[in-house]
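W.,

You were right to be curious about this one. When I first looked at the sequence I had no strong expectations either way, so I just let the prediction run and decided to look at it fresh. Below is the sequence, 663 residues in total, followed by the output.
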Amino acid sequence: MRTPSPAGRRPAGRGPGGRSAGWLSVLRTPVGAGAGLLLGGVLVLAVIAPPVWGHQAAAINTDVLLEGASPSHWAGTDNLGRDLFLRVLVATRLSVGLALVATFIAVVAGLLLGTAAVVVGRRAARLVATVVDITVAFPGLLLALFFAVIFGVGTTGAVLAIGCAAAPGFARLTQTLVAGVVERDYVAAARIAGVGRVRLLLRHVLPNIAEPLVVNATIGAGSALLAFAALSFLGLGVQGASYDWGRLLGDGLDGIYVHPAAALAPGIAIVVAGLAFNLFGEAVATRIGQAATGQLTPLGRAARRTTADADRTSDEAAADLVLDVRDLTVTVPAADGPIRPVRGVGFRLGRGEAVGIVGESGSGKSLTVLAVAGLLDERVQVDAERLRFLGADLLSGTPRDHAHLLGSSFAMVFQDPMTSFNPALRVGGQLAEVSRQYGGLNRRDAAARAVDRLRAVRIPAAERRARQYPHEFSGGMRQRAMIGMGMMGSPALVVADEPTTALDVTVQRQVLRLIDSVRRSDAVATLLISHDVTVVGQVCDRVLVMYAGRIVEELPASELATGARHPYSRALVAAVPGMDSDTHRPLPVIPGRLPDPAALPPGCAFAPRCPLADERCHQQEPPVETDADGRRVACWHADAETGLGTQPAAERSAETAEAGERS
């Protein structure tokens, strides 16, 4: 499964210098440098304070009980004569350590809850999301007190309480980030290739959401520090001979009017440490936001491939048939009843043949292909009289049963150029993974194969480019690399869904030539989806015209411009300006718009926009008729002269309205 994209600026932490360069750049800002030094000082103090001052902080001196601040005791002494300033320093390890442990619990629990949609089934994920939605509505401190009662008084109970109280917020963030990644094309392609749920999560989802999660965890550590101090202050945290800042603050508060330094010292320590974590997290978040501004999100990644074995029937083998679709219907559940955006689509595709599908946005072109590839949501129902790929019945079994076949023989260039490469992985590694995972090649051979495929799709300096990230490729190079990924195996079918979107005309021509050369050299069947009837006419052998989820005409590509019989087909051709178009007249357009698939009009779906529509068109849907040459058309007035697309838009709209009134 494959795709293209525009060139983008290098994201923070990518390319030469790696991810660490992006994180170190945080320290170059004034706020980042200050927060980094402050946080570093707190962490160093947590390490060295107990062994250096632990013995002195525990020493009892009855001669200086409850003394105020002095040069000998900067924060005074407690009721046993122990130096409070040293005790505050020594308490840094326990206070910071317990906060980090609680943060770790919150992060782990939040990740498990937030990624449930990827790992478990839909019903279980929905239940988890409901629990998260309910718990995140309560204040964190209130949840912490609730869990503290459940887990009991003491250090362990307080750590678990704070960790569990912070988990829902982290889970909500993770859910949001995961939802933005799982819809990317590279994730969908990995699923169809049979990648396991856990590997999908670890390989394709978490690396692309790691930075905001780390930022949130850093800020969360500061919040956990404050929460733990609050529980200890209330007597629910650290107990016995141990002490942390919260407990020291509680003890010092009793004599705040006599010895204020006893309460101020741990209070200042809590504020300083909390600010260190929060400011550093905010500095990192700001740096990531600046790096993302002006940067084009890199392409996603495509699927891996596997070895396939298709059990062909004898008649299909004789016809060398790659794809056979008959009466394909896609049904989407909705509150007001099921919606059928694809209705009775059927076509055949032979080895080495190029077929184009044209139509306006929303006509069902991409949805048809996604249904064939098994990439639709599991709630969407796909029905067909026949749906065979290389002889294998795709209607039987589960998507996982067909993962090997589709992964090795079905390659797809997705429409969105921003989501087809995994931005966290190098291009060569993504290509090589296909051969390593399913082709049985070792690391070196797979890398060599990836470089060879990049050369085959005419990417210069292929060895150097294989070590780069997707954002370092231009749009055209990225598109060619996606085609190269499709060639890592031996595909029998390449589906190109708007493969020239967002590319200039020169690069478009190069990409189309490359697809055509791959088709001709390896006898690979090609299915090209496009709005541009000119492109389809140049590259394809046959053209399927879709409207409102239905194929309304099929004809040779060479006859599209002059031999189209359906009024909609002729209108599409006429709407494309040419070199001889009259610049003094408005550009031709098709009046009206596509009907809502949830409320299709009776009869022919194109009738409200067609100047030839009569009463029969508005009441009866025309059947698809096939002539002796295999051309198909679904129209009661096929071949009739319409004039649609040759008049100015205002005139055509008026005529269409009049025709509608007459009918």
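Here's what jumped out at me. The CA atoms of residues 13 and 19 lie 3 Å apart. And, maybe more interesting for your project: The first helix runs from residue 18 to 24.

Coffee later to discuss?

I.
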